[in-house]
Write a structure and sequence with these properties.
With 159 residues, the chain is mainly α. It has helices at residues 22-41, 48-59, 65-72, 76-88, 110-131, 136-152; strands spanning 92-94, 106-108. Strands 1-2 form a two-stranded antiparallel ribbon. The chain is globular.
């Protein structure tokens, strides 16, 4: 019987089976990756948004709250909390006065750089676990194909 009839065999595929929808599987992968990163970073007392913020600041010191929020996929209000937590722990510094406009540039401290190095190794181990069953060529192809999908939707952020 079809899925619309309320029953279907476990091995029978239907056109509306969510596990066959690329977007659904991408979301499952992203959710599984986020959960694994949360678990791995927890002993370091770092959240995934905090880790993303540290990575972004390592690559581009002085980013504004808005730039960090975009890069970490959180709201500006959430990034305020992320930055406050990192600043309270001495991992970042923020200018008290904006050099221009209202944006307060943020920089990693030496302690922030040290914490980032440890967190980066942890996150890389999680990513390797996720990719363990893929060859280097399959990993490259997956990355390139996902980037192509992002570009097609016009969502690639150059920041």
């Amino acid at each position: 019987m079809s899925q619309s009839g309320g029953e279907r065999g476990d091995d029978e595929q239907t056109d509306n089976d969510l596990n066959q929808v690329v977007g659904y599987v991408v979301k499952q992968a992203a959710t599984a990756l986020r959960a694994a990163m949360d678990t791995a970073l927890r002993p370091m007392e770092i959240t995934v948004p905090q880790y993303a913020c540290l990575e972004l600041l390592d690559g581009r010191p002085g980013l504004s709250n808005a730039d960090l929020a975009r890069g970490a996929f959180v709201t500006r209000q959430s990034m305020n909390g992320v930055l406050r937590g990192l600043q309270d722990r001495g991992l970042v510094t923020r200018a008290s006065v904006a050099p221009h406009g209202r944006a307060l540039p943020t920089q990693l401290t030496a302690a922030g750089q040290k914490r980032l190095r440890a967190a980066r190794a942890t996150v890389q181990a999680v990513e390797q676990q996720m990719l363990t069953n893929l060859s280097r060529e399959q990993q490259r192809r997956l990355r390139d194909d996902l980037a192509t999908c992002v570009d097609a939707l016009g969502s690639r952020d150059d920041a």
